[in-house]
Write a structure and sequence with these properties.
The structure is a single chain. With 257 residues, this protein is α+β, with helices and mostly antiparallel strands. The protein is 30% helix and 25% strand. The chain contains 4 helices and 13 strands. It is rod-shaped, with a radius of gyration of 52 Å. 11% of the residues are buried.
């Protein structure tokens, strides 16, 4: 059944429909206005809006894609080197020190300071020789009889201390050499405690004299033969010692010889 448009009922229905449509449009307009206000407030607060953020995300994605493509093609120049490659490119590192092995190297300034002897005039001398742990004062009365040709010129007692430094340097030498061919610190006589077997096969400690050449220029001779440098050479009663090119002979004897 069709309702005529000019009747009061038709006019009421039309007005109700218009009111309903007008209310919906008003609500949509209010929602849009609210969104615009929020967008304006967000733009004022952060400096950019949703569109700007979307463009920024797009630019970031583009930069990321370009970096990944560059790394896949040949590696980025900004990529840091690995520790192994940095070690190869830099200077060589010193080899690790094996702590299980003893270190006999010079200890530098500390060793020089402890081995330095100063004179009253301010001069100083660094000792070339240090006594070993087995150094002992002898129990026998060892002596050196000094001969020049057939004439005895001096008698030296070498049993009052464990070691005697021999050379031209009067500041440190216990036995002074005058000949110019002798070195300032030429040699040393050292009494040492060594292990020796007796006639029954037992082992006992015996104190014996040794001589060591301190890398002298013209060497040290025992019984006419030059001894090796920097090594202990055992001496026996009756041995004849000569230093450098000097003609003086030092004959070793003790009380019981």
């Amino acid at each position: 059944m069709t309702v005529p448009e000019n009747t009061p009922k038709a006019r009421g229905a039309t007005a109700h429909l218009r009111k309903k449509i007008g209310g919906t449009n008003t609500t949509d307009a209010g929602t849009a206005l609210s969104r615009d206000r929020e967008r304006d407030s967000e733009t004022r607060q952060y400096g950019y809006g949703e569109r700007e953020r979307e463009r920024e995300r797009g630019r970031d994605r583009g930069r990321y894609d370009r970096d990944m493509d560059r790394e896949r093609r040949g590696g980025s120049s900004r990529r840091s080197k690995s520790p192994r490659s940095r070690q190869r490119s830099g200077s060589k590192s010193p080899p690790p020190v094996d702590k299980a092995k003893p270190n006999f190297g010079a200890s530098g300034l500390l060793a020089a300071a402890t081995n330095t002897v100063k004179a009253a005039d301010g001069s100083s001398t660094v000792l070339k020789y240090n006594e070993p742990p087995e150094a002992r004062k002898p129990t026998l009365g060892w002596r050196l009889y000094v001969f020049k040709g057939k004439e005895q010129v001096e008698l030296l007692h070498i049993h009052r201390q464990s070691a005697y430094l021999i050379g031209r340097d009067r500041l440190v030498a216990d036995i002074v050499l005058e000949h110019p061919s002798c070195s300032k610190q030429h040699a040393a006589i050292q009494h040492r405690s060594v292990q020796e077997r007796d006639e029954f096969g037992g082992v006992k400690a015996v104190i014996k004299p040794f001589i060591i050449d301190l890398e002298s220029t013209n060497g040290t001779h025992v019984n006419g033969e030059q001894i090796p440098t920097s090594r202990f050479y055992e001496l026996k009663a009756g041995d004849v010692i000569k230093f450098g090119l000097s003609v003086r002979e030092y004959v070793l004897l003790h009380d019981d010889a």
